[in-house]
């Protein structure tokens, strides 16, 4: 019989495993009754996949909206039908010639300004975006190419960390909805020789980092007490301001009632705690507007 477990597991997803497969494996390892992830990683990709258990699933949307950081390996000189190494090579193009490594690096660096800040990106056909209720990748597999509207994304930081020509490694911090495969293709197009993604590792999701994560093997082998792998529910929300309320106010919020406060309002989404000892004092989130707390997502205390 499954158990109610509330919290967050930071998984270092291995290559070859789907995000849903990772959720199932973690759910089974902890015998949890409810689990979900906070944004898909392609099977080829590795790295940070926060998995929400129990009541934490209510807050997974908050991490879907969060910025992400990736280490991306780009191979220049060829294009594939999927934009990554999983696909078939559809075009091979001559690589530009360079006098020396310094000239190569200078040219690669010159590409980055146009891929920094607010940019426009056309989503790939091999994606889970839906058209008429069907994911785009289903059309792509049937050989159908549909027109896709460009979408605005933000690249906060981008830099080359290693060059072993014709491959080069990028570190990219970006907004939600960014396709690193498309970024690799666009860099190749800008250089005139095509490119595709041959490796991808996610290192950050919002304020959560890969160095806090565990491999699926370490979780399944249970080398530690299960609680050492599970962060509390509010670990997802540490960037929000927090507020402590008394027991009467806490009960009103839990009943879905608004609670006026004699405090200067900060007009923001806040984490709410009851004035009792941790770790079971997190209530949920509320909108603090015009001096009144409006309950938003509360965790079940049952």
Automatic annotation (TrEMBL):
Reactions this protein catalyses: uridine(55) in tRNA = pseudouridine(55) in tRNA
An individual GO BP term: tRNA pseudouridine synthesis
The protein's name in its UniProt record: tRNA pseudouridine synthase B
Family: Belongs to the pseudouridine synthase TruB family. Type 1 subfamily.
Active site: 42 (nucleophile)
Keyword field: Isomerase, Lyase, tRNA processing
EC nos: 5.4.99.25
Residues in tRNA pseudouridylate synthase B C-terminal domain copies: 181-238
Residue ranges annotated for the Pseudouridine synthase II N-terminal domain, each copy included: 27-180
Domain tRNA pseudouridine synthase II TruB subfamily 1 C-terminal positions: 241-299
UniProt-listed HAMAP family: TruB_bact (MF_01080)
GO molecular function, one term: tRNA pseudouridine(55) synthase activity
Gene of this entry: truB
Organism the protein comes from: Polynucleobacter asymbioticus (strain DSM 18221 / CIP 109841 / QLW-P1DMWA-1) (Polynucleobacter necessarius subsp. asymbioticus)
Its job: Responsible for synthesis of pseudouridine from uracil-55 in the psi GC loop of transfer RNAs.
Pfam families: TruB-C_2, TruB_C_2, TruB_N
